[in-house]
Amino acid sequence: MKTIDEVLLRMDEIVAECEQKNSRIGYFAILYRQVTRRIKKGIELQEFEDNLRMERLDVLFAGRFIDAYDTWKSGQKPTKSWDIAFEASKSSSYLVLQHLFLGINAHINLDLGISAAETMGSKPLEGIQKDFNKINSILAELVDGVKTNISKVSPIFGLLIPLAKGRDEMLLNFSIQLARDGAWKYAGEYYADLDRESLIKDRDLNISNLANKLIRPGKFLSFLVKIIGVAEWKSVSNTMNQLDIVAHRSI
To answer: Which tens digits make up the pLDDT trace of 113-147?
Structure first.
């Protein structure tokens, strides 16, 4: 893929495939397609410091998710962090937000830093930092929109959001802000390192440990997850459609 339009075509195919197969990978795919649409709109409106460069970054960034998905679908192993997210999609015992955060964990904490460094090539990495943060802001806005409007899909979680007063991420031990900060630090390490393959393996191991904490958050949080999960929608396709509506409204 070389253009954002090609990325969107492939994302449409993945979303349709997930809906047809009742795959919970579709939860992240729905959200990420809306992120990509929002970035395309931003490029058209000249919102970024370098709009052509942003398209390159988006294509590289999206390509890592798509490659991981295709690798896993073929029966091979993608990165550990993506493998955990994809394998978790087979289970109905995890919350919708757990599936979303598993995808975001792999994509921001591992893929984004690599994509940013490779976008810049030999040019100074600092040149892309503002646009790097912009991608994270767009994703965070969409996730916040989903969390705020998730009461239809997940009534009990929807009730907890107002009570948490901005601390709702603690319920799942995941912070997009922390992920973004860590991703930028990793981008610098990846940019400067000559042995990038080893660096990716080490980073992937650490991020996969975070993924395991997301699906096994401890006794108390696991208890809360079970309670919340009782009232969540069980239909994958209906949940995907509702997430698409919510994410679309958020942009």
So the answer is: 999 999 999 999 999 999 998 888 888 888 888 87
- Three-class SS of residue 45? coil
Catalogue the E-assigned strands of 38-99: none
Angle between helix 129-148 and 51-73 (nearest 10) = 60
Contact 50, 65 (CB under 8 A): no
Tell me the per-residue pLDDT of 164-194, one tens digit each, with 9 for 90 and over. Answer: 555 445 455 567 777 888 999 999 999 999 8
C-alpha closest to that of 81 among 173, 228, 210, 245: 210
What is the per-residue DSSP string for 98-128? Answer: HHHHHHHHHIIIIIIHHHHHHHHTTS-GGGG
d(CA 164, CA 174): 14
What does the buried/exposed string (b/e) look like for 45-67 if buried means 16 or more CB atoms within 10 Å of the residue's CB? eeebeeeebbbbbbbbbbbbbbe
